[in-house]
Design brief:
10 helices, alpha/beta, seven-stranded mixed sheet, 24% strand, 14 strands
Length: 352
């Protein structure tokens, strides 16, 4: 692995700065000298090692789930350029051999940009040829814990590297394939569905039939719909109208009142919130629900400002930590810029 010179991190186009700032903070904290190479709206970031220890050793020391703005990552060789159109396999296999390991899985990827998406068909066609070559070279093993990654920038440029399967996104490029439910009131329902899949390892243990939930800023009911599908009794708080079909199901009670002043009569199991308010205000509100013992768990979105987005995120999460620690509430906080998020991140707080 001495040939590894950099980490490749995939992110949402337009969030390269936040992705870069976050990984640089961790690299510095863990004692890895490095610098960033990236361009706006490319959908990926390079963290390049600048000495010892080898930058590839950063991955085992950092939990992938801690990264908010990174969708997928891998330790990479220097970029391959000028791949010959008639024989891309040979230089790619030669590069893979430099990694000096075998692989349980492979992931062919491309940046999540309009230009990158045009490579989807190319990757699908290339995949069986690569698999055949890997089998011939005996580079595949069911006992390996590594995944081979190839990120194509176009048909002639690619990054080749690897990452531990257990310490990376389990779905290709960190992009879930969720279908919009035809009966859901709004597309925002996919945000909560993705959040539940991402944050909760065993849903059956913490989201159970008969549990209670409050949905702040609920209208027209996309998030309430997800909770109802899981058998939760929902109190929807919003001055706007809820979707009629959802309300006729009898699982949702709607109060037209201010989400910042409403308080439940007893502790609920889940609080969810997707409001277009300043992140500092939402953070303080969510923390208050916990410190008053109004909820046990929460999933909520923080809308990000146009500038200093990473700073705003860190300040909000730090404030929540301080408030809950001050109230002696054992808890776990996770945050992620999910695929279905745009100018926001999603946060999950669970009491322990």
């Amino acid at each position: 692995m001495n040939n590894i010179t950099q980490l490749v991190l995939l992110c949402r186009p337009g969030f390269e700065k936040e992705c870069a700032g976050e990984i640089m903070d961790y690299a510095s904290e863990l004692g890895f000298p490095a610098y960033i190479q990236t361009k706006p709206d490319t959908g990926y970031v390079l963290l390049i090692g600048a000495g010892e220890p080898n930058i590839s050793e950063l991955i085992p020391q950092l939990d992938f789930k801690q990264l908010i703005f990174t969708r997928q990552w891998f330790a990479s060789l220097p970029k391959l350029n000028d791949l010959p159109e008639q024989n891309r396999i040979t230089p790619i296999i030669n590069a893979i051999k430099l990694l000096d390991q075998d692989f349980n899985d492979i992931e062919l990827a491309y940046p999540d940009t309009n230009e990158g998406k045009s490579l989807s068909r190319f990757c699908k066609q290339f995949n069986p040829h690569l698999l055949a070559a890997l089998k011939k070279q005996k580079l595949l093993s069911a006992h390996s814990g590594q995944r081979l990654h190839i990120l194509f920038l176009d048909s002639q440029q690619a990054f080749v590297g690897s990452t531990p399967i257990e310490n990376s996104a389990q779905i290709a490029m960190g992009i879930p394939r969720l279908r919009m439910p035809s009966s859901a009131p709004s597309r925002s329902t996919l945000k909560l569905e993705e959040a539940i899949h991402w944050f909760i390892d065993d849903e059956s243990k913490v989201i159970k039939n008969g549990m209670t939930a409050v949905d702040l800023g609920a209208a027209p009911g996309g998030w309430s719909w997800q909770l109802v599908q899981r058998g939760l009794l929902v109190t929807a708080i919003d001055n706007g109208p809820m979707e009629g079909k959802l309300m006729r199901g009898g699982m949702v009670e709607h109060y037209k009142t201010d989400a910042f002043t409403y308080r439940p009569k007893k502790t609920i199991d889940w609080l969810v919130c997707d409001m277009a308010e300043r992140p500092s205000l939402v953070s303080k509100l969510i923390a208050k629900w916990f410190t008053r013992k109004d909820c046990n768990n929460a999933i909520f979105n923080l809308k990000l400002p146009m500038k200093k987005r990473l700073q705003a995120v860190n300040e909000c999460l730090d404030q929540i930590h301080q408030d809950l620690n001050g109230a002696d509430i054992p808890h776990q906080i996770q945050a992620k810029h999910l695929y279905h998020d745009r100018e926001e991140i999603t946060v999950c707080i669970m009491t322990l």
